[in-house]
Amino acid sequence: MVWVESLDHEGRGVARVDGKVTFIDGALPGESVETQTWRRKARFDLANAVRILHSSSMRVRPLCPHYERCGGCSLQHLDTRAQVAMKQRVMEDALAHIGRVRPDVVLPPIHGPAWAYRHRARLSVRLVARKGGVLVGFRERRTHYVVDMDSCEVLPARISALIAPLRGILSELTLAARIPQVEIAVGEDVEVLTLRVLDPPSEGDLARLRVFGRQFGIDLYLQPGGPATLQPLDPSTARPLFYRLPEFDVTLSFRPNDFTQVNHAVNQILVRRAIALLDPQPGEQVADMFCGLGNFTLPLARRGARVVGVEGSQDLVARGVENAQRNDLAQRVSFRSANLYADAGEVLRTLPRLDKMLLDPPRDGAAALVQALGAQAPRRLVYVSCNPATLARDAGVLVAEKGYRFCAAGVINMFPHTSHVESIALFEREA
To answer: Tell me: the pLDDT tens digits for 380-430?
Structure first.
């Protein structure tokens, strides 16, 4: 029997067994559990909880029948409110121990629906003859096997209901063994499935897929190579993907392989929070760094600011320009493509003097950009992060070296039932 002391940053129970730290999948603080060790290391062990002897009040029954094996979620056994509290602690611990900083205010967490929220996903596909055909699903935990799924509780209901018929149609294709994955993109009115194909489909395969798309009212795309090879199965009938930010009267169009936030409901709250913290005023000059297709850029402009969006992907920059034109914001918005890791200093030198800045970097954070901030740095900065460790690192630099005050920070539960932590932070300095 093992008594669990706490949770780590990945949502695993933490216990000490004969003085050695053990991380236990499926265990919660305050529980007594029986464990099975699956890996031993010099400083710690990894184990599974195989039997719960005393259950925590935070434990709930997982909704998904595939949860015990599926690697798509790791925290369905933990109450969603406790999940948010865990992520808040992960963020605060990272800030304190990595950045050695603490915000003046901890913001209320941003959260939304816990189920049917995932509007982007990548499902693996594998032909397994002994299972009767093709399997479609997430990978099993710690293996490359594909879970034998017929539903998914974090996908929208229509997409979840498509898993079984999708397995059926893929099993009928002569190309069945040459489709490694299916990518899902959901817009306001359209669902798209992108099939990665390693060989050209036969005419018979194409006919079957067209019938499937019409039957279920979805758009199908094929991608035989890199992102540039993505094409709709039937270009003449392909419908545009888009999502709305109604509070800002903004509609953003995107391609199936463009980066967008997976959780549309939480994204609306996140944009509202970011704009409120940055507080753009008419006529102010604002930069949106790592701007993507304009998720924050256009709402900032809608508030009257003059905004420049900077993004490394030329495709996303093109999408941002199109979105600005469609939303009648092209007069207040400009976009440019630049590498904010290699050329951050040069980018800042070529921008007009900035009043405010928003940063939404990938997991690597924005170290080069933060280091490049000089005497003309904006007086207010909002940082949206998908990695508490790199946020903490960059926050430490902003406070210790760049003269910013760390005003506020809070978590965003963009990915319920996973250990993924997103957060938002506000920094200010004297003008």
So the answer is: 999 999 999 999 999 999 999 999 999 999 999 999 999 999 999 999 998
Q: Which of 73, 152, 386, 407 is catalytic?
A: 386
Whole-number Å distance between alpha carbons of 154 and 63: 10
Q: How far apart are CA 219 and CA 91, in angstroms?
A: 39
Place of tokens 């994204």: 267
Comma-separated ranges of CATH 2.40.50.1070 domains in the chain: 120-186+191-239
Burial of 27: CB neighbours in 10 Å, binned 0-12, 13-18, 19+: buried
Average pLDDT, stretch 263-287?
Answer: 97
Check: CB of residue 365 under 8 Å from CB of residue 391: yes
Q: Which residue has the tokens 């995107």?
A: 254
pLDDT band at 87 (very low <50, low <70, confident <90, very high): very high
Q: Considering the domain 120-186+191-239 in this protein, what is its CATH number?
A: 2.40.50.1070
CATH class, range 2-59: mainly beta
pLDDT of 431 strictly over 80: no
Annotated catalytic, 152? no
